[in-house]
Amino acid sequence: MRALFIKEFQELKRDRRTLAMIIMLPLLLLLVFGYAANFSVDHINVKVIGPQASSTVSYLKSLPGADKFNFVADTSAPATPTQAQKLLRSPSGDVVVIPKAKAGTLSQRVDVYLNGAKLFTAQSAKADLVQMQANDMRAQLKQLSSAATQAQQSAQGLRTNPTQAAQAAKEQSQKLQALAKQAQETNTNWIKVEFNPDLKTSWVMIPGLIGLVMAVIGTLITSIGMVREREAGTLEQLAVMPIKARSIIAGKISPYFMLAIVDMSAVALAGVYLFDIPFNGQLWLFALAGLLFLGVVLGLGVLISTVSQTTAQAVQMAIMTIIPQTLLSGLVFPLESMATWVRCIGYLLPLTWFVQVSRGVMLNGSNAAQLWLPLSIMALQCVLLFGAATARLARSLRSI
């Protein structure tokens, strides 16, 4: 038993990658869940549009609980629902406010439009806005109550014109009663949720799960392709063949690329028809994003395959790339709720950008002009990963 104990430790010592994963993975998961596992969003972007935008922003900032919102006034934008939907289709579109009155409670002064495609952001914003409305009502009730009391006292003490004072007191009492009646009502029609009116979790999760499925299949299966050649001893045969490294990679990944396209189509169709997920955008844009993302994950799989010595190592490294993408891409936890340094890591992951495009196309109906940034980043990642994989494979073939 002692000999087996020593033997296992020696094998672990030789397999440094497995040892590093055993030691680092628990710490990595602890850090990720500690800094990223948070469903509450504390920073929400709010754009106020229309000629009254500046004064409305000043009013909103004065309300208790407004510190969670980042208000931006745009007096040049038309104050229309169409413009609000257009702004919400951008990746940074969280909340749009349209002023409608200069007096009254919060619900009487503004109409609010939420981006339902950002589920947790919309839920947090709606809860905070309802609380701000309640606080605003309480403040106005207190002011009206004080004004009514003063008016009644004036009516009792005023001898020259008691009728006028009594009338003022009556008006204040009527305002107080009207506001009290409104406070008892729970009407939230002034808050409108776009793209996901019922805030369904499945509508937000499934567009992102399409990318996760492609990431698992593309990275995991492709990562063992070149390793099998090395384990079977056929890598030497590839080295002496008159073909370049990029041609070898293209030939190796082509079957996986076609299978991944079939999987992507099947999952997308299942999401639309089985879970009633809307598809409001352009099909060609979704297909382009899918092809770019497939290029990224296949390139990552090939790169892993070129640096791994065994199938077990390739699978371990592939899983190590899938776990952070699942947790830090905004698929499960909102990026806005993560610590800044964790969010920066999330922005380096390809699934983060595919989730933005997938939700943007399927739910928001966004166009290419609104999604050019994530598309460009995925294209850049695809080029970099395939370039690195080609260079690594060429060096490996030369060393044989």
Q: What is the rounded Rg?
A: 29 Å
Strand content: 5-15%
Q: Give the biggest sheet.
A: 5 strands, mixed
Uncertain runs = none
Mean pLDDT: 83
Secondary-structure class: alpha/beta
- The overall number of domains is 2
Strand segment tally:
5
Helical coverage, percent range? 55-70%
Number of helices: 16
Separation of the first and last Cα atoms: 40 Å
- The arrangement of helices and strands along the chain is HHEHEHEHEHHEHHHHHHHHH
Shape: elongated
Q: In words, what does this structure look like?
A:
The protein has helices spanning 2-14, 16-36, 53-61, 81-88, 106-109, 119-157, 162-184, 201-223, 225-232, 235-240, 245-274, 283-307, 311-328, 340-347, 350-364, 372-399, and strands at residues 44-49, 69-74, 95-99, 110-115, 191-194. It has 400 residues and is an alpha/beta fold. It has two domains: 44-194, no CATH class; 201-399, no CATH class. A five-stranded mixed sheet has the order 2-1-3-4-5, sandwiched between helices. Helix 3 (53-61) links the parallel strand 1 and strand 2. The longest helix is centred in the middle third of the chain and has 39 residues, at 119-157. The mean pLDDT is 83. Keywords: Cell membrane, Coiled coil, Membrane, Transmembrane, Transmembrane helix, Transport. InterPro entries: ABC-2_transporter_component, ABC2_TM, ABC2_TM_bact-type. Residues 156-396 form the ABC transmembrane type-2 domain.
